[in-house]
Design brief:
By secondary structure, this protein is an alpha/beta fold. It is globular. The strands form 2 sheets. It has an 8-stranded parallel beta sheet with strand order 9-6-3-2-1-12-11-10. A 4-stranded antiparallel beta sheet has the order 5-4-7-8, with no helix packed on it. The protein has 17 helices and 12 strands. β1, α1 and β2 form a beta-alpha-beta unit. The two termini are 18 Å apart.
């Protein structure tokens, strides 16, 4: 499946745990200890959610102030980071040169980001459409004049991003040394109130005041009876095609700088996207509009490298979407919690997975396996038991074993399932605005005993990593 040098060149097991859900909630010691846990557990993949600056109200990493920046809240505020962030004079000559080099290499997204964030702070967090017209329209002279009095803050915003990069690089190097690949997540759409849209308005379907003409979402499905209204602006695909999808090429290159493997959230939006009228009360009254399909995928795969992208193909999936994914040899997703609707041709049933897929007990959008199991009627539970090697095995371990036994090259289990937690530990409930993204693992949860139990299951399913075929370079590209 895919490129023989790619991350999915062999059977692997992984764990889904966002950085904010670590006991420490940041890139510090707990993150490094979790890598050690994964290694001991025989798991060679760590899947995380987007590392971007999360929405300030909801905490969602899928509504970000920038698609390219790292979330400053993830920085481990140790003494070193405190010195670097607090006073630029604390940097020695070597570090000062590293900072300058890093900022120059990332200037294409870093400068719009620091301008946007500083201006946003000057306007009390108000969305950019409400700023004075010259700033709203990013007039260079107006921006320069507005930021001159807060030059120190602009410089601090740059240093924040550099410190994030230093700490993330250390974590990536620790993971690489442990034989652990890092699996990232790229939301297909971006937030209207973001540096990306403010700095590149011509690439989005906006009116002259910077407001969307239609917004993103999805029709009614398993997750929401009225569909979901996400409220992102839609892309102006014709404008993006004019320069060979340069914005997307830069975005995917940034993801590959951060991650070994990247999941494209809502992959189907490249084939067709759901357009919701701005004034519609729900997402029901929308329509599908065609996307660029093969053109954008060709650009992404060429930039990312073969064998490094995964398509999130859940929801309303048409033959055209399947054909697009297959044409570019992207693995799709299989979620076991979706497998038991009684349909014999359900694509999530274990015998229908195939190698070109990534299997999950559930994702960050699902209930935990314990919560899911408790919600099932006895008839559905019987249908699950008929597929288990041991119908009497307790949940969540029965479903974990089923996922690991799948023919899918990669099996990923949310950390909540390894910890046997109920629905109170769910990460996100789609279609709701509160109570999400806050779950954090308790201190000391990832024990040697748990690692040994997981490793035995991983070994039984032939998913222990082959040391002779390990991984990728630190920047993510095949050696």
């Amino acid at each position: 499946m895919g490129d023989p040098r790619g991350p999915l060149d062999q059977r692997r097991a992984g764990v889904l745990l966002h950085v904010t859900s670590l006991p420490g909630g940041d890139l510090g010691d707990d993150a490094h200890r979790f890598v050690d846990f994964l290694r001991a557990a025989g798991c060679s993949v760590w899947q995380v959610l987007p590392l971007v600056p999360a929405d300030e109200e909801s905490g969602s990493p899928y509504q970000a102030l920038s698609t390219m920046a790292g979330d400053p809240a993830l920085i481990h505020r140790d003494a070193e980071a405190g010195r670097w962030l607090g006073d630029p004079r604390a940097l020695d000559d070597r570090r000062r040169e590293e900072l300058a080099t890093w900022c120059a290499e990332h200037a294409d997204w870093l400068e719009p980001y620091v301008e946007f964030m500083a201006l946003r702070e000057l306007h009390g967090g108000a969305p950019w459409q409400s700023w004075p017209r010259p700033l709203r329209d990013r007039d260079p002279e107006a921006v320069r004049a507005a930021l001159a009095p807060v030059a120190a803050r602009v410089d601090e915003l740059r240093r924040e991003q550099w410190v994030f990069a230093v700490q993330w690089t250390r974590l990536r190097e620790h993971a690489a040394a442990a034989g652990v690949l890092v699996f990232g997540d790229l939301p297909i759409f971006v937030s209207l109130d973001s540096a990306d849209v403010w700095a590149s308005r011509d690439l989005f379907e906006l009116d002259e005041d910077g407001r969307p003409t239609t917004v993103t979402g999805c029709p009614p499905d398993y997750f929401a009876a009225d569909g979901q209204r996400w409220n992102n602006p839609h892309y102006d695909w014709a404008a993006m095609a004019a320069d060979g999808y340069d914005w997307w090429r830069r975005r995917i290159a940034r993801q590959r700088e951060l991650f070994d493997l990247v999941r494209i959230d809502h992959f189907r939006g490249f084939e067709a996207a759901w357009h919701v009228p701005v004034d519609a009360p729900t997402a029901r009254d929308g329509w599908w509009a065609a996307g660029p399909g093969p053109e954008i995928l060709a650009a992404l795969v060429e930039t990312a490298g073969p064998g490094t992208l995964v398509a999130e193909d859940l929801g309303v999936i048409t033959p055209e979407v399947d054909a697009l994914r297959t044409r570019f040899d992207l693995p799709g997703m299989k979620v076991l919690q979706f497998a038991f609707d009684g349909s014999a041709d359900n694509p999530y049933l274990p015998h229908r997975h195939g190698e070109r897929s990534v299997v999950y007990t559930g994702t960050h959008d699902n209930d935990t396996t314990v919560g899911w199991w408790s919600s099932l009627d006895e008839g559905t539970r019987d249908a699950v038991r008929r597929l288990l090697a041991d119908p009497g095995e307790e949940m969540p371990w029965a479903l974990v074993r089923l996922a690991l036994a799948s023919t899918a090259r990669l099996a990923v289990v949310p950390a909540q399932d390894l910890l046997g937690l109920g629905g109170e530990s769910r990460m996100n409930t789609p279609g709701t605005d509160t109570g999400n993204w806050a779950w954090r693992a308790p201190a000391g949860a990832f024990t040697p005993e748990l690692a040994a139990r997981v490793r035995a299951l991983v070994a039984d399913s032939d998913r222990l990593p082959d040391p002779g075929r390990q991984g990728l370079s630190r920047r993510g590209y095949p050696r």
